[in-house]
Design brief:
Chains A, B: This is Glycosidase. Chains A, B: Keywords: Glycosidase, Glycosyltransferase, Hydrolase, Transferase. Chains A, B: Belongs to the glycosyl hydrolase 130 family. The structure is a homodimer. By secondary structure, chain A is mainly β. The first copy, chain A, has a single domain, classed as Tachylectin-2, Chain A. Helix content of chain A is 4%, strand content 50%. In chain A, strand 22 and strand 23 form a beta hairpin. The longest helix of chain A is centred in the C-terminal third of the chain and has 7 residues.
Chain lengths: 358, 358
């Protein structure tokens, strides 16, 4: 796969962003939703901020309080036996694989560009946590434009779990909060950009507990607010690069061959790559073909090293003719962009046996 | 709380049911959905069957194959190091808290009664697994009647996870399969029996993995097929009988005081009791009051002992004036019924402080 990484990469880094809260530092500006608006490329950044700490014996956790509308900062001693601090991103319950708190809080902030390479970052957040389901932050937005409306949806994190919240905007100044559309545990929702045979469709990625794996499902809707007819779409593949967890990445791209979904897959060792899956144009619950090898994998320095290294994670692309401009988070730290050929991606897919025999 | 247990309890036991499949034994007839139809009480039983095994070195797992429409039986050696067989209900992955297979397969079968105490069991299943999301069985049905239509919904189990499937019937002879309405991991859905201010509502019980607990949420819909606006409703309570997991039980009962939901709560030690929560009549996402102590707890022999003892688990009640006829599964084995006073349940509830001060 020919991949042209921009010379300007990384395009946005934590250092280029002024913290929103005094006494905080920006540790990530990544996993941005992508669209165009008024002739500009809009990068809706996930910005992760954490309280600055000079004390190496305590770990802090910022928590949004929806009743006071303020951020509160909890402090934990590294000696507290109730918690496990070994993962810098989370404060885990000791002896459990569940987290109790996060060490940073993410919100959504706009970066704008005329050329898609040089970005100016808005002074203030665009979307900040606002409900009791967003107290630990909001993460990894995607943007689907339908008519004049931009639907923005993202993971909402709280002690009650991780689910997906929908908002809508027409001007990227104000927005309407439309509630949680996928209940915990779910993230990596991707709403298709048009109705297909009278229904809206969305990919989603439940994380079941008792049995099952973090895999990609598909659901349908008639109003974007309420979703049902959940069906399992594609799963992990043993002995491949996507044997740990998978989830949708960019808004599905309509091509002559089918709906092309650029998805992320992680290995069991948490190395995140991008791959592709092709879905039937008339019935996107039918899988036609899938990448054997990744179309993008962490190779550049800024992809391999960072807060959480070895990660490329796209939440949105722009397609211009045969050119796929894939914007993607790197190492849970910064944003980058690479161009790929749409035709080359399509040609690389391995078709399902049942499709070949048709 | 005054509880009148029927003298006929248990009303239905595995011994009273002829296995559907040759070479199988019925090990459970429990957690039935309840309604009335044509002047009879309908108990829609969850019947669990397993292959008879004389060989004590192997464990068998029945799995429905949706492509052949047949049941297949897998055999596992008790010495297989990949699996943990210590829980008789499941075959767990070794070193994981996830199950890989179940040791029995559940389906739904009708028991009918004129007096609500003496039941005749249909010869054949009413609803049997039929899709790739039901390969490990279907469990714990509830029934909500809206107009002339009986909506039946149940947990669907497969290697992809545990979600909730909806079907509808008007005659309890044929039904229409309406797909999975709540994606994994979710069960214990309870659809309210009428629209409230123009919306359908349902309780549901996600089981999140990364953070959060098995607690009760509420969602809304305009067509019963697609659900959204998910909100967290009530949680576990430390140092109480419901500190392990909770989930909806019976279809919510409309009273002058509010919607009364009889729910199940388990302790961390998996002792299952029934409690009650009262929701606002006009906005069921508002919690008004909740049981401090259980309204029913496992005390009778048939509740304490069985395949999985110390369990009372109601999936449906009949209300006649002040009498709540609570049908409930006992010890994951059989069905029983007890009568309680609706007024006494309402009087026992402890109101939220914010409600008292209104």
């Amino acid at each position: 796969m020919n991949v042209y990484r921009y010379e300007e990469n990384p395009l946005v880094t934590p250092a280029s962003i002024k913290p929103h809260k005094e006494g905080f530092e920006v540790i990530g500006a990544f996993n941005a939703g992508i669209t165009t608006f008024n002739g500009e490329v809009i990068m809706l950044l996930r910005v992760a901020e954490r309280p600055v700490s000079e004390d190496h014996h305590t770990v802090k956790s910022p928590v949004f309080n929806p009743e006071t509308n303020k951020l509160e900062i909890l402090s934990f001693s590294l000696n507290d036996p109730r918690y496990d601090f070994s993962d810098p991103r989370v404060i885990n319950q000791q002896g459990s694989d569940q987290f109790s708190y996060l060490t940073s809080l993410s919100y959504l902030r706009i970066a704008r560009s005329r050329d898609g390479r040089n970005f100016t970052i808005d002074e203030d957040p665009f979307i900040y946590p606002s409900t009791n389901l967003e107290t630990f932050g909001i993460e990894d937005p995607r943007i689907t434009k339908i008519g004049a409306v931009y639907y923005i949806y993202f993971s909402a994190i709280s002690k009650n779990g991780v689910g997906e919240v929908l908002v809508s905007t027409e001007d990227f100044k104000t927005y309407e909060h439309l509630g949680m559309i996928f209940a915990p545990e779910n993230k990596d929702v991707l709403i298709f950009p048009e109705k297909i045979n009278g229904k809206y469709y969305a990919l989603h990625r439940p994380v079941p507990k008792s049995t099952g794996a973090p895999e990609i499902w598909i659901a349908e809707s008639d109003n974007l607010l309420y979703w049902g007819n959940h069906r399992h779409l594609i799963g992990l593949r043993e002995n491949k690069w996507d044997n740990g967890r998978i989830g949708g990445g960019a808004v599905p791209i309509k091509t002559e061959k089918g709906w092309l979904e650029l998805y992320h897959g992680a290995s069991k060792e948490s190395r995140y790559c991008m791959g592709a899956v092709l879905l039937d144009l008339e019935d996107p619950s039918k899988v036609l073909a899938r990448s054997d090898a990744p179309i993008l994998e962490p190779e550049a320095d800024y992809e391999v090293q960072g807060f959480f290294g070895n990660v490329v994670f796209s939440c949105g692309v722009l397609v211009e003719g045969d050119v796929v401009k894939m914007y993607y988070g790197v190492a849970d730290t910064s944003m980058a962009c690479a161009e790929l050929s749409l035709q080359e991606i399509l040609d690389s897919l391995v078709y399902e046996k049942s499709v070949i025999s048709r």
